[in-house]
Amino acid sequence: MFCPFCGNDLRTVTAFCSSCGSNLQFLSNEVERESSVPVCEDDLLRKYFRDGHTYSVILDFLELKHNIKMSLRTLKKKLNRLSLYKRRNYSPLDTVRTAIVGELNGSGQHYGYRTMCQTLRQKHNLTVRRQDVMLMLKDLDPLGIEQRSRRRFVRRVYHSLGPNHAWHIDGYDKLKPYGLAISGCIDGYSRKVMWLNCGASNNNPDIIAAYYLQCATQFGVIPKLLRTDCGTENGTMAAIHCSLRSVHTDDLAGASSHMYGSSTTNQRIESWWSYFRKQRSQFWMDLLNDLKERQLFNGSHEHICLVRYVFLSVLQMDLDECKEIWNTHTIRAVKQSRCPSGKPDAIYALPHRFNGRECGFRVSEEDLNQFFIESTLSTCGDEQLQANFEELCTRSNLTTPHTWETAVENYITLKNMAHI
Fold first, then answer.
1. CATH no., domain 166-418
2. For the chain, N or C: smaller number of CB within 10 Å?
3. What is the mean pLDDT of the chain?
4. Helix (H) or strand (E) holding 2
5. End-to-end CA distance of the chain, in Å?
6. H-run or E-run covering 208
7. What is the average per-residue pLDDT within 6-31?
8. Which residues lie below 8 Å from residue 204, measured CB to CB, with a gap of 6+?
9. Are 167 and 268 in contact (CB under 8 A)?
10. pLDDT tens-place string over residues 131-188
């Protein structure tokens, strides 16, 4: 035992610690109380034997923890008296089989034969042979044995019934240090990108709700389930979706039609962001970071607004191109998904060709117009700076950029003219 105040090793419990002098009377009382509790020697023998300890370890446990001293010969005699044998009096195979079936119905379905043997001995007090358990598992759980023999982690499989069964929505913040906030939505079944928009913010609930309404108006359908993370920017959209779904009678109608969860479990859109990073956003991150290294961008409010004013339209054109290319490329079949392979546009529009069915709900423009949201946020996020930049563009005859090269030139020109 050790002193709880200084950690000194206490050979015997005294009233005061010999190292720090702290009062240890409460430890003495606890030791006396524990020692007064009667301990059945037979129960201790059963416990340590069922735990699978060797004879020498059992003797050490009895002596050090319970102050029971006995010889190896005495220990064996007492174990024989209690009918505790390692290689005799095996439990009936029917009893062992019933116990294994019970374990396979719960968390024990992932046990190998060694762990199952230990469980049967400790939990069910059965005397079993490893060979018998191995053969029974081979008969009762062949699929589990096959999976364990691969020595691979078994991942959960994404499952969806058809297009518009679930929309996965999330924001992309890698370009946010430069004032460019991206929001995206992907259909879980077809992997079709429903929207990919860039704006001054992706934390404003009105902006995200406007993206949702615009998409629902374009396709004339709302999904059965909306999946987002727990950000406050999704609150208005979630309320609108649940309101639209309240008139339906399926199992996910009303409030159940929206599901919050962590970003790591919103796997469809999070996986797509990985593709987007490698194929598109890395270029824009390098481009804007180059402006920063050339001391043309310092992260101030004026510089962020100027980046938005100049680059937003060019970036949105690139996002539209990225969405179009993704929706018309061919997705290969993978083992971790039960969703079909093919082109997202075809899978979304023709689910019957891929053993799927339309899961969304038609919605009219009248129903959507009652939730009309007017965006009051300017392109660059500041109305005064917006007006100033527009005036400078008119004065210097700068046109709207259509390439990143022109956008960089306009940015440098406006920065020098605005003296920021």
1. 3.30.420.10
2. N
3. 87
4. none
5. 69
6. helix 205-219
7. 66
8. 233, 377
9. no
10. 999 999 999 999 888 888 877 766 677 788 899 999 999 999 999 999 999 999 999 9
Alpha helices in 220-252 (DSSP H): 235-245
- Residue 54's contacts (CB-CB under 8 Å, 6 or more residues apart) are none
Q: Nearest-CA neighbor of 379 among 323, 294, 327, 310?
A: 310
Residues in the chain: 420
Sign of CA dihedral 64, 70, 71, 76: negative
Predicted confidence at residue 281, as pLDDT, reads 93
CA neighbours closer than 13 Å in the CB half-sphere of residue 154 = 10
Reported in sequence order, the residue ranges of 34-191 that DSSP labels E, i.e. its strands, are 166-172, 181-187
Q: Give the pairing type, strands 258-260 and 225-228.
A: parallel
The burial of 103, by beta-carbon neighbours within 10 Å (0-12 exposed, 13-18 middle, 19 or more buried), is given as buried
CA 317 to CA 280: how far, in whole Å?
12
Q: Given the structure tokens 């030791």, which residue do they identify?
A: 31
C-alpha span between 302 and 316 (Å, rounded): 21
Task: Compute the C-alpha angle 70/71/75, nearest 5°.
Answer: 80
| Percent of the chain residues past pLDDT 70, beyond the cut | 90
Measure the CA angle with vertex 151, ends 148 and 156; round to 5°: 75
- From 314, 242, 254, 258, select the one nearest 284 (Cα to Cα): 314
Domains of the chain, by residue range, sit at: 93-149, 166-418
Structure tokens at 373: 């949201």
Tokens of 144: 């589990």
